[in-house]
Each structure stands twice: as C-alpha cells, then as structure tokens.
C-alpha cells in the first residue's frame, strides 16, 4: 500500500482482492435486504437482518459505531436522502427505501447502496430510481486509467440532466475507500471533466449519486444523522465501490463484478 499526494491511498492487487471480499459481503447483504423490504416491516428489522448476515459472513459492519452511528445500515425512506437511522419506522406500500451498507473484512472496506420500491409506486419514482442507478453506472463507465476524478462527476451529472429536472445533492459526495470507509478524494456528482486527482491503478472509489425529484437543498434532522430534502421531495441513492485494473474496470461490490453493466456500456471488465 502506498499514498499519492493529498493522502490518497493506493492498494496492491492483493489488497484490492481483500476489498473484493468485503464488497461481496456488502453486495450479498443488499440483495438479501432487497428481498425483505415489504410493507409492514420496520427499518430496525432490516438492520437486524443485515447485521446478522454481515457478521455470519465473517465481516464487521462498517457503519456501526462510526462517529457514533448506532446501526449496521442506513435506511432512508421517501424524503430522507441518506444516513437514516433504522428503528421503529414501519415501511408502507408505495414507499421508496434507500439502504446503504458497508462491511469490513481483514481491515478492508466495501460500501454500496440501493433504493427499493415497496410494491407499486408512482411512475415518477420508478423513473427517479432508474435515472439515479443509470447515472452511477455512467460515472463508473467514464473512469479510465490516466483520467481524472471529475470525469466521473461530469458523467453522473450529464446523465441526470439528460433525463429531466432533478436535484443533484452537492453537499454529499462519493469518496475514496480502502483501509477506511471514507478517504480522499471526494467524488462529486457534478462538475467539469478533467479535474481532480488522476485515476491510477490501486485507487478505489465509491460512486454514489443522491438525486431528488425537487431541489438539491437538504437539512439534517435533530438525530444529527438523517438528511432530508428541504422541499419534501422524495429521493433515490445508489452506490458501488470500484477500481480500475490494467484490464479494465472492476466493481467490487457488484456480485458479478459489474461485468454485465460494463459490457452494455462498452467498458472492458477488469475483474478476476
């Protein structure tokens, strides 16, 4: 392991393989939770399912105790964008639930998020989730060895803007990841290409667009964690951790390494 300027951590191939093990725990946990999201379940019950699965997989929840966060996942419902604390809230038909999950294996982190519709939801919400997930993949697809961090940012913003009038959060960004969950550099979801640190082998990044049906402005609730939209508009959040190898792009938290989505976008797959 080494470091670039500004404290950016560069991993060896063996360390990236460790991140893949953590990423698979995260990916499998999110798929398990996707199958459990339904009307009548509480966000706290989802958290218990997640913690049990993470620990039974030989991993540790990244979020639990992180700056005092009390749970293993973030569960954010409707106008809650990110960092929702799981508890007694009962999920209802027509809700959308964003679930953010992190896991540590042998000191290496994986971090990913999905947004799940509960039963039948309004078409504008289906579109919002689709646009947000597509924007994430567009950002990942824009990353090339020798490129710059904001190549990702620009691709995320360009896709969102091409799909309609949505709010793109600016105060919350993607990030570097490795031996810690949040590391430099930040990966904004907007901006001009060709700026920021260079994309090099051994760098791992989490790309996570947070998109709303209304404005980008948010506030934090009195619990000091939950981020909500100021205008009450609903939101979606998708995230993956990825790296770039000499062969291509490797999405460490996708169960197939991102192979299917990358192929559809014409991006070489760099996984094992």
Explain what this protein looks like in three dimensions.
This protein is of the alpha+beta class and 272 residues long. It is built from five helices and 17 strands. A five-stranded antiparallel beta sheet has the order 10-9-11-16-17. Strands 3, 4, 6 and 7 form a four-stranded antiparallel beta sheet that branches. Strands 5-14-13 form a three-stranded antiparallel beta sheet, with no helix packed on it. Helix 1 (13-36) runs antiparallel to helix 2 (43-56) and helix 3 packs antiparallel against helix 4. The longest helix is centred in the first third of the chain and has 24 residues, at 13-36. The protein is globular.
Structure in a nutshell:
The protein has helices at 13-36, 43-56, 123-141, 149-163, 259-264, and strands at 2-3, 9-10, 60-61, 73-77, 80-82, 96-105, 108-117, 167-168, 174-176, 183-187, 204-207, 210-212, 218-220, 227-229, 235-237, 240-245, 248-251. It is α+β, with helices and mostly antiparallel strands and 272 residues long.
């Amino acid at each position: 392991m080494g470091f670039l300027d500004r404290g950016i951590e560069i991993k060896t191939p063996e360390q990236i393989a460790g991140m893949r093990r953590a990423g698979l725990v995260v990916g499998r946990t999110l798929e398990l939770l996707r199958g459990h999201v339904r009307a009548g379940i509480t966000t706290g019950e989802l958290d218990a399912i997640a913690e049990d699965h993470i620990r039974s997989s030989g991993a540790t929840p990244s979020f639990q105790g992180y700056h005092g966060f009390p749970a293993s996942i973030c569960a954010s419902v409707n106008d809650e964008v990110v960092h929702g604390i799981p508890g007694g809230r009962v999920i209802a038909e027509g809700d959308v639930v964003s679930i953010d999950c992190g896991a540590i294996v042998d000191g290496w982190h994986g971090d990913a998020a999905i947004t799940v519709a509960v039963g039948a939801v309004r078409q504008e919400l289906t579109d919002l989730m689709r646009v947000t997930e597509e924007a994430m993949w567009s950002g990942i697809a824009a990353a090339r060895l020798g490129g710059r961090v904001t190549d990702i940012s620009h691709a995320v913003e360009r896709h969102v803007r091409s799909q309609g009038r949505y709010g793109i959060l600016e105060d919350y960004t993607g990030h570097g990841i490795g031996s810690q969950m949040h590391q430099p550099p930040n990966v904004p979801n907007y901006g001009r290409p060709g700026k920021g640190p260079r994309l090099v082998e051994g760098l791992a990044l989490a790309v996570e667009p947070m998109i709303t049906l209304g404005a980008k402005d948010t506030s934090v609730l009195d619990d000091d964690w939950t981020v909500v939209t100021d205008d009450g508009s609903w939101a979606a959040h998708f995230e993956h951790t990825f790296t770039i190898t000499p062969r291509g792009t490797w999405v460490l938290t996708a169960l197939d390494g991102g192979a299917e989505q990358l192929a559809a976008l014409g991006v070489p797959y760099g996984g094992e």
